[in-house]
Design brief:
The structure is a single chain. The protein is mainly beta and 394 residues long. It folds into 2 domains: 226 residues, Glycoside hydrolase family 11/12, catalytic domain (Jelly Rolls, Sandwich), CATH 2.60.120.180; 95 residues, Immunoglobulin-like (Sandwich), CATH 2.60.40.290. Helix content is 9%, strand content 44%. Strands 2, 3, 6, 7, 8, 10, 11, 12, 13, 14 and 16 form an 11-stranded mixed sheet that branches. 37% of the residues are buried. This is Glycosyl hydrolase family 5. Belongs to the glycosyl hydrolase 12 (cellulase H) family. GO terms for molecular function: cellulase activity; polysaccharide binding.
C-alpha cells in the first residue's frame, strides 16, 4: 500500500515586489504558454499491445514489420507485449522436451509468412530473387535481452522459396536459414554439425538438416546480445555448400526466440531490415491462382510419412503430398496412429481428425498441385512415434 511522504512545515515566504498590470499580464500569458508546451511534450507513450492468441499478430512502425506470437508447439498460454521497436515475452507457460520441437517462435519480421505480410519496401509479397542485385543490398540488425533462466535459443529465421511466391504461398519450400545468437540448455539445431566458419566478424558452427526443406543453422560460438549483417553473407556460404540455389527467392527476414522451458523476459529491443527498395515494375501479369477450399479434392495424389524426431511422450513428423499424372486441386491425407497416440499440432495443413486418427486437408494456398508437384505439412504427435505410417491421399 502506497503512502504519502511526510511533509515538512511550509517555509516563510517574503512578499513579492509589486509589478505593473502589463508585466503581470505578460507573465500570466507566458506561464500559460509554458504550461501548454509542457503538456504537449510530456504526453505518455502509447500503451504496448499484448497478444496471447496462438497465432495472433500485429504490425509496428506503420506496418513496416509484423510481430507474431506464433505459439505452434504447445497448447499452454504464451503472451507477448509489443512496442514499436520489438516485443517482450510476458508469459510462457508449459514446456516441451529438449530433444524435440520448441514451444513457439514469437517473432518480428519483414516480408510475408503464411500469407501475413508487412508493408516493407525491401521484401514485397513476390519476394526478392537471390540473383537480383537488390538481394545483395539487404542488411539486417537486431538487439535482444535474455533472462537468467530458461531453455531457449535466440535466432534469426530467414526463409527462401524455390519459385517466385505470392502473398498466399504460405510455408516456404526452399530453405530455412537460422542464425543463433544465443542458446541456453541442452538444445541443438535440426540435423548435425558440418563445419565451423568465420562470417560477419564472428565464428559460427554450421548445422544442416532437412524437414521437407533445407534447414541451415549458424550457431555463434559465443553469446551475443546484438548482431548486424548482410543476408547475402550467410546465403553465399549456404550456396557454396549446395544447400541453396541462386534462382530461389527470399520471402522473409525474422528475428525471435524458440523457448522449450520458460521464456518470460526474452525480448527484442530493436530490429531493422534495410535495402534498395521496391522491385522493378512487373511487365507481365502473374498467372491466375486457384485456391481450392481445404478438404475438397480432384485428381490423384500420394502421401509419404517421415519421422523427424521423438522424445518421451511425443514426436515430430513430416508428410509429403505428391500429385499424380493429372495433378490435384485439393487433397486430404488420412492415416491411423497407434492406440493412445494423437495429433497435437499441424502446420501447412488443417487437421480434422480426433483420437488416433490423422486427417489433414490442404490449406487454401497449397491445394493445387501440378502433375508430379509436391508440398509438405508437418505435425507434432503425442504418444509412441511410428517409424513408418500407411497413408492414403485423395
Amino acid at each position: 500500500m502506497s503512502r504519502s511522504p511526510r511533509l515538512s512545515p511550509a517555509p516563510r515566504i517574503s512578499p513579492l515586489p509589486r509589478r505593473s498590470p502589463r508585466l503581470l499580464a505578460a507573465s500570466v500569458a507566458l506561464a500559460a504558454l509554458l504550461a501548454l508546451l509542457t503538456l504537449a511534450t510530456a504526453q505518455p507513450a502509447a500503451a504496448d499491445t499484448e497478444i496471447c492468441e496462438q497465432y495472433g499478430t500485429t504490425t509496428v512502425q506503420g506496418g513496416r514489420y509484423v510481430v507474431g506470437n506464433n505459439r505452434w508447439g504447445t497448447s499452454a498460454t504464451q503472451c507477448i507485449s509489443v512496442n514499436d521497436r520489438g516485443f517482450r515475452i510476458t508469459r510462457a507457460d508449459g514446456q516441451t522436451a529438449t530433444n524435440g520441437a520448441p514451444k513457439s517462435y514469437p517473432t518480428i519480421y519483414a516480408g510475408c509468412h503464411y500469407g501475413t505480410c508487412s508493408s516493407s519496401e525491401v521484401i514485397g509479397p513476390n519476394g526478392v530473387r537471390v540473383s537480383d542485385s537488390r538481394f545483395a543490398s539487404i542488411q539486417t540488425s537486431v538487439s535482444m535481452t535474455y533472462p537468467s533462466s530458461g531453455t531457449y535459443d535466440a535466432a534469426y529465421d530467414i526463409w527462401f522459396h524455390r519459385s517466385q511466391p505470392s502473398a498466399t504461398t504460405g510455408q516456404n519450400d526452399g530453405a530455412e536459414l537460422m542464425i543463433w545468437l544465443n542458446r541456453q540448455g541442452s538444445i541443438q539445431p535440426i540435423g548435425s554439425k558440418v563445419a565451423t566458419v568465420n562470417l560477419a566478424g564472428s565464428t559460427w558452427d554450421v548445422w544442416f538438416g532437412n524437414t521437407g526443406w533445407n534447414v541451415v543453422s549458424y550457431v555463434r560460438t559465443s553469446t551475443a546480445g546484438s548482431v548486424s549483417f548482410s543476408v547475402k553473407t550467410f546465403f553465399d556460404d549456404m550456396l557454396a555448400r549446395g544447400y541453396g540455389q541462386s534462382s530461389w527467392y527470399l520471402t522473409s527476414v525474422q528475428a525471435g526466440f524458440e523457448p522449450w522451458i520458460g521464456g518470460t523476459g526474452l525480448a527484442v529491443t530493436d530490429f531493422s531490415v534495410t535495402g534498395n527498395g521496391q522491385p522493378p515494375t512487373q511487365t507481365t501479369p502473374p498467372p491466375t491462382q486457384t485456391t481450392p477450399p481445404p478438404g475438397g479434392s480432384s485428381g490423384s495424389c500420394s502421401a509419404t510419412y517421415a519421422l523427424v524426431g521423438s522424445w518421451g511422450g511425443g514426436f515430430q513428423a513430416n508428410v509429403t503430398v505428391k500429385a499424380g499424372s493429372s495433378g490435384v486441386t485439393g487433397w486430404t491425407v488420412r492415416g491411423t496412429l497407434s492406440s493412445g497416440s494423437g495429433v497435437q499440432n499441424v502446420w501447412n495443413g488443417r487437421s480434422t481428425g480426433s483420437g488416433s486418427s490423422l486427417v489433414v486437408a490442404n490449406e487454401s494456398y497449397n491445394g493445387s498441385l501440378a502433375p508430379g508437384a509436391s508440398t509438405t505439412f508437418g505435425f507434432v504427435g503425442t504418444g509412441n512415434a511410428p517409424s513408418s505410417l500407411a497413408l492414403t491421399c485423395g
